[in-house]
Amino acid sequence: MSIDYEAALPHLRVKFAEMGLSFADGTLAQAAAMGITQLVWRNGPIENAHAGERGRRNGLHDGVMFARNTWVFHQALEAVRSTDQYSLLSFEDRILDRSLVWPGTRSTLSRFGY
Questions:
Q1: From CA 100, how far away is CA 111, in angstroms rounded?
Q2: What percent of the chain has pLDDT over 90?
Q3: Is residue 92 within 8 Å of 80, Cβ to Cβ?
Q4: Who contacts 21 (Cβ-Cβ below 8 Å, separation ≥6)?
């Protein structure tokens, strides 16, 4: 199935406006960054590790999750706003750094199930 994105834009602009999202005030970029955070981060292996049994979370408590989710959102927002065509690839490299030991834990993404 082929989608004519040019033809769909006027309809999408109306729908976005109805939801209070606009490119001009930055709310569209924020919504995109939130969606990226939810889809590629929050609802993945890291959430499974966070929701695991106590004692098996390696210190991945609510405070650590909140801080890291906030960081991921801001990284996604920077990527969405960037004019660099490869910004989402750079974003992916940053958030999937397997060697980074998470603050408040003794573990890396590899240990959390990535």
A1: 11
A2: 17
A3: no
A4: 27, 28, 31
- How does pLDDT run across 66-91, given as a tens digit for each residue? 888 888 899 999 999 999 999 999 99
Instruction: Classify burial at 76, counting beta carbons within 10 Å of its beta carbon; exposed 0-12, middle 13-18, buried 19 or more.
Output: buried
Residue 4 DSSP one-character state: -
10 Å Cβ neighbour count for 81? 13
Cα–Cα distance, 7 to 94 (Å, whole number): 35
Q: Evaluate if pTM is beyond 0.90.
A: no
Could you tell me if residue 58 is left (phi over 0), alpha (psi between -120 and 50 degrees) or otherwise beta? left
The two three-digit tokens of residue 63, written as one number: 């405070």
Determine the longest span between alpha carbons in the chain, in angstroms.
53
95 near 75, Cβ under 8 Å? yes
